[in-house]
Design goal:
- The protein is mainly beta.
- It has one domain (about 1-90).
- The chain is built from 1 helix and 6 strands, in the order βαβββββ.
- The protein has one helix at about 15; strands spanning about 1-5, 20-25, 25-30, 55-60, 70-75, 85-90.
- The strands form 2 sheets. It has a 4-stranded antiparallel beta sheet with strand order 3-2-5-6. A two-stranded antiparallel sheet has the order 1-4.
- The longest helix has 4 residues, at about 15.
- The radius of gyration is 14 Å and the shape is globular.
Amino acid sequence: MTYECTDTGDDTMFVVAFDSKTFQSGASLDTAVLMDAPDGYDADAQMTTIKKGTTQTVQVAYVLTDESSPVTVEVSDLFALDDTVKVTREFTL
């Protein structure tokens, strides 16, 4: 999954600013560890601190439960008191 995020507050990292949840067939997906990552994949990007106004591309790999069911992604502010402000998107495989 490729995320593009822009820091609008204090210097931060994707991993500490956003709560990202990924589902397939109603069940959460585990994060994958890639031993032979494809070209351009940077597993450490989500740990990079970015300054206010900077946009960063972050990629996270997941272990799919099957290769045909859609994948739903929900992203919200990690420190929000409720989840009323979140982005949800479904991807067909």
